[in-house]
Design brief:
The protein is of the alpha+beta class. It folds into two domains: 376 residues, no CATH class; 135 residues, Jelly Rolls (Sandwich), CATH 2.60.120. The protein contains 20 helices and 15 strands. The strands form four sheets. Strands 3, 5, 6, 8, 11 and 15 form a six-stranded mixed sheet that branches. Strands 4-7-12-9-10 form a five-stranded antiparallel sheet, with no helix packed on it. It has a two-stranded parallel ribbon with strand order 1-2. The longest helix is centred in the middle third of the chain and has 29 residues. It is globular. The protein starts with 10 loop residues before the first helix and ends in a 6-residue tail after the last strand.
Length: 536
């Protein structure tokens, strides 16, 4: 007699569903902390201040978060391709560090461009949030393999979502998380009896990240008996590889020999770079101090990856689709070059992300496998380092017309306390007199409009000016007072402006806060535009 479908939910299942919901809520809460007033979610892209002058004009004009005096990370190149996806553009060829290599991963640049309707500001925000949407998509599709009916499924589902590789992809707006989602979709389609759709999805996934085609083996069952079946399997393998091959050929035709490093440093002889990584990590642990503290994160990642690798190699199961996916990534892991292993803990965890998902699907459910399951998910212990939100600069800068955001640098000099922020706004407290310096890197004057809100703990007079000239002054109290000052002429070079008050600051209501707080500037915003005033 067939088993009747159950329409009720047990108390255990309700608890598991609530726990899964809490994982999603906590994740979204952590991501929301990266929102910066006026800059949106651009801090997830990690623009580097040292490359600011190199960016395409559309990015230079946008008010986005940039890490000062750093080189940023990979997403700063991909998002520029998303803003200007025409590889024939001279600006994109000089702006992106290695265009042939970056352009191979064009899929999520295209999706950001289309969803952003070609508007640079929208594209940047969408590109930053694509990983978040794909994280949610992966959380949903994984319920196919980890239904909410056991605590072990809850652990496996959570371990994948909070693995270092997936969290790093979200934090840095990389292609690994979205690519893993497409691999999971491809496996789900094959398991559902749709091998051709599976091959198509994996082929599209190859345009997101080329390593996705390593999953092509899922479309070939080892128990095929007829020539027709094997011929169809070979065609499906070709379908997986075709989009990437055709796109790579197009890149070669457009870019030619531009750039000689196309990612070859990511591959090495088997196990050479892996052994080097293990040796380097041991040396860092032996040195102690801060270096050893960082190295512990690497240890967790290495334990997880080595456990997964040994599980698949020592327990071959070619009949299982996820094993056929994982074995390709095992080969990749053995051949990864130092460019992937270097760093703390390195990029390997996200490059091999589908292997982590396959591991959690295939490890047997028995109690004897719990230790293996825990070791294979040890990278979760490193993920918490990625949850720290960025520091806010405490102001917003908008460039208009031909003025670029990088033409102007705003520095808070004497008299200011560090910037603070809530989820939606930023502010700075100041002492009795506070000075900013605005540097104009062009050879022409720039007009600047400044607006802000100002308040204080007790009534006082606050003024704003430049040199000996006062441009604004008014009485200020606890209620915020909006101020707008127009047509400040910013000469080439340094330009100093000041806020000052008529008396010393007041103590904070918080006994632990020893600062003397004179006045607070909220929502400081500068709007720059060309000036017709000749340079002095």
């Amino acid at each position: 007699m067939p088993e009747l479908k159950r329409f009720y939910v047990t108390r255990k299942e309700r608890l598991i569903r609530v726990a899964m919901g809490m994982v999603v809520i906590v994740f979204l809460g952590l991501v929301a902390r990266f929102y910066l007033p006026g800059k949106g979610m651009s801090s997830l892209i990690l623009f580097g201040g040292n490359f600011a002058q190199r960016y395409i004009p559309e990015i230079k004009k946008l008010d986005h978060y940039s890490e000062p005096e750093t080189y940023g990370y990979d997403a700063q190149w991909y998002v520029q391709i998303a803003v200007r996806p025409d590889l024939r553009s001279p600006e994109i060829r000089t702006a992106v560090d290695n265009l042939p290599y970056r352009a191979r991963r064009i899929l999520f640049c295209w999706t950001a461009y289309l969803l952003g309707l070609g508007k640079p500001g929208w594209i940047v925000q969408i590109y930053a949030l694509q990983n978040v949407v794909c994280w949610l998509g992966l959380a949903w599709i994984m319920l196919r393999w980890f239904p909410a009916n056991s605590y072990q499924n809850l652990f496996r589902w959570t371990a994948v979502l909070l693995s270092f590789g997936l969290c790093a992809s979200v934090r840095l707006s990389l292609v690994d998380g979205p690519s893993c989602l497409l691999v999971a979709c491809g496996v789900a389609l094959f398991e559902a009896g749709r091998p051709w759709w599976s091959a198509l999805v994996l082929g599209i996934g190859g345009l997101g990240k080329e390593t996705a085609i390593l999953s092509a083996g899922v479309t070939v069952r080892p128990d095929y008996k007829t020539l027709k079946e094997w011929f169809a399997a070979a065609v499906r393998l070709g379908l997986v590889a075709a989009p990437l091959l055709l796109w790579t050929y197009y890149i070669y035709r457009v870019c030619g020999p531009l750039g000689t490093n196309t990612g070859s440093d990511a591959i090495d002889a088997p196990f050479v770079a892996l052994f080097q990584k293990i040796q380097t990590t041991i040396e860092e642990l032996q040195r102690g101090g801060k270096e050893a503290e960082y190295a512990r994160g690497t240890v967790y990642a290495l334990i997880a990856l080595l456990t997964q690798f040994l599980f698949f190699v020592l327990r071959p199961r070619p009949s299982q689709p996820w094993w056929r996916v994982s074995i390709g990534y095992c080969v990749l892991m053995a051949c990864l070059g130092w460019a992937v292993w270097e760093g703390v803990p390195g990029a390997a965890s996200r490059v091999l992300l589908p292997m982590t998902l396959a591991f959690n699907v295939l490890v047997p459910r028995g109690r004897g496998w719990i230790l293996v399951l825990l070791l294979g998910n040890a990278s979760v212990l490193t993920s918490f380092d990625l949850t720290r939100p960025p520091e806010d600069e405490g102001y917003r800068l908008t460039a208009m017309d031909e003025i670029k955001k990088t033409d102007i640098a705003v520095n808070f000099e004497s008299g200011w306390y560090p910037a603070e922020r809530s989820q939606w706004e930023h502010w700075r407290w100041a002492e009795k007199r506070a000075v900013i310096n605005i540097y104009n890197s062009t050879d022409k004057p720039i007009l600047l409009d400044v607006q802000f809100q100002v308040s204080s703990l007790a009534p006082r007079t606050v003024s704003f000016g430049r040199d000996e000239t006062q441009r604004w002054s008014d009485s200020v109290g606890k209620t915020r007072k909006p101020v707008r000052i127009e047509n400040l002429v910013i000469e080439p070079g340094n330009n100093q402006f000041w806020w000052q008050t008529d008396r010393e600051g007041d103590p904070s209501a918080n006994p632990a806060d020893v600062r003397k707080l004179a006045f607070r500037i909220f929502g400081l915003e500068f709007r720059a535009r060309p000036s017709t005033v000749p340079a002095q």
